[in-house]
Amino acid sequence: MKLTEAVFAVFHESFISSDPKHKNSTEVQCPICLCSLTREDVVNKGGCVDHIIPQSAINEDGDIIKQEIARNERTGLALLCRRPRKTVNDKKADQGCNGLKGSLYDTLFAGFLETKQFSAQDLKIKHQVAILVMAYLGAFQNWGYSYILRSELDEIREQFDNPGKIVSKWTSSVQFETAPNKIVPITPGKGQPFFFYEDANDLVVIFRRFLARLPGKPKNSVRVGNPYGLLPAKI
After folding, report:
1. For the chain, what is the radius of gyration of the CA atoms?
2. Of 15, 9, 77, 83, nearest to 43 (Cα)?
3. Three-class HEC string of the chain
4. Is 70 within 8 Å of 88 (Cβ atoms)?
5. What does pTM read for this prediction?
6. Would you say residue 197 has pLDDT above 50?
7. Which one, of 220, 67, 74, 199, lies nearest residue 143 by Cα?
8. Digit-coded pLDDT (tens) for 54-90
């Protein structure tokens, strides 16, 4: 089974179990714009499986980390559409949400995952948005559609289209470690790079040098199974 098939399978299972009205669906939805994605879109057309933490950022990982922890486990995987659309600002996005994430956010983090010192002034609103988006997609990878298909997440999806201004209160929750730190969390060993804990009504997401808060997960949230391609022994 190809990785794209495995990723589609686990998210499709999450989608049909998230709501009774989806039980007979053969499709899934993009977690950002919520457009429909067919199996053909994901498996055969390609380009819809996204590395949540940019591959360009994890290229800076040391040799031991690269040997011990598989690439996909260090980045996390999600689905993002490549369907042409317009943003909330009426700008064209010919490569959909996947292309937007790549052009707006993925290039921002070269050097930021290293243990060196950097200044808070190095991080702009667009960095905060990028970190929030990665945390949101991390929660999607972990709990799938039972987590994201709620109105509380609409403002985060809207924030995705607005890299230069804060439109979601959750953007201001983003924190980043600026001091050099030789110990950086890479993975909890569950096929993805995100650490989660609940604080009051918030879901706290920690990864690398970053922390973000999201709306708490509902009690009926079901963890998404890992496709075989995320498991280190299978890569």
Report:
1. 17
2. 9
3. CCHHHHHHHHHHHHHHHHCHHHCCCCCEECCCCCCEECHHHHHHCCCCEEECCCHHHHCCCCHHHHHHCCHHHHHCEEECCCCCEECCCCCEECCHHHHHHHHHCHHHHCCCCCCCCCCHHHCCHHHHHHHHHHHHHHHHHHHCHHHHCCHHHHHHHHHHCCCCCCCCHHHHHCEECCCCCCCCCCCCCCCCCCEEEEECCEEEEEECCEEEEEECCCCCCCCCCCCHHHCHHHC
4. no
5. 0.92
6. yes
7. 220
8. 988 888 888 888 888 988 999 999 999 998 888 777 6
pLDDT in tens, 113-122: 766 677 778 7
The closest of 107, 127, 131 to 193, measured between CA atoms, is 131
Strand 175-176 relative to strand 92-93: parallel, antiparallel, unpaired? unpaired
Question: CB of 115 within 8 A of CB of 184?
Answer: yes
